[in-house]
Amino acid sequence: MNFRMMTAAGIALVLAGCTTTTGVARNEVEKRWLGQPAGAFFAQFGPPISDVEAGSDTVYSWKGGYKTRRIPAEYEKTADGKRGKRIAAARTEYLSCAVQLTVSSDYVIRSIRIAGDRKRPTGPSWCEEFLGGAKAE
């Protein structure tokens, strides 16, 4: 009986060590880039602005995706279908995305953390749209 318990415990420990080091994707950016080569990311979006060694990993800071987006004014609809009173004025958004990539010694992205982003009330954020390929509504 004791031998079976020790064998079961040994197998459980071995299986517990067989997890992936990339983690679970929480957003579109992580879904797209976790486990991918960092070279592909930097080739598509440009070089990092800085890097820091963290043991056998390297943490890269990247910023890009600069875009100016014009948001038109919003108006309420009247009962007869015409444009009514203005609800919100027209505005301009200046968008950019900043992320930190943790890259292993074999140059594979192990984590990607969004450090600066513009959230939207509906639909994907700017980083998810730009880096993750999420479609805006």
Question: Nutshell version of this structure?
Answer:
With 137 residues, the chain is an alpha+beta fold.
Characterise this structure:
This protein has 137 residues and is of the alpha+beta class. It has a domain at 28-67 and 96-131: Beta-lactamase Inhibitory Protein, Chain:B, domain 1. Helix content is 25%, strand content 37%. It contains 4 helices and 6 strands. The strands form 2 sheets. A 4-stranded antiparallel beta sheet has the order 1-2-5-6. The protein has a two-stranded antiparallel sheet with strand order 3-4. The radius of gyration is 23 Å and the shape is elongated.
Give the number of DSSP strands. Answer: 6
Could you give the order of strands across the largest sheet? 1-2-5-6
CATH class of the domain at 28-67 and 96-131: Alpha Beta
The CATH topology of the domain at 28-67 and 96-131 is given as: Beta-lactamase Inhibitory Protein, Chain:B, domain 1
Task: Indicate the mean pLDDT.
Answer: 81
Shape: elongated
Fraction of residues in helices? 10-25%
Give the number of helices.
Answer: 4
Judged by helices, strands and strand pairing, the structural class is alpha+beta
Percentage of residues in strands: 35-45%
Our Rg estimate from Cα atoms comes to 23 Å
End-to-end separation:
61 Å
Major sheet characteristics:
4 strands, antiparallel
Order of SSEs? HHHEEEEEEH
Using the 3D structure, state the CATH architecture of the domain at 28-67 and 96-131. 2-Layer Sandwich
Low-confidence stretches: 12-22
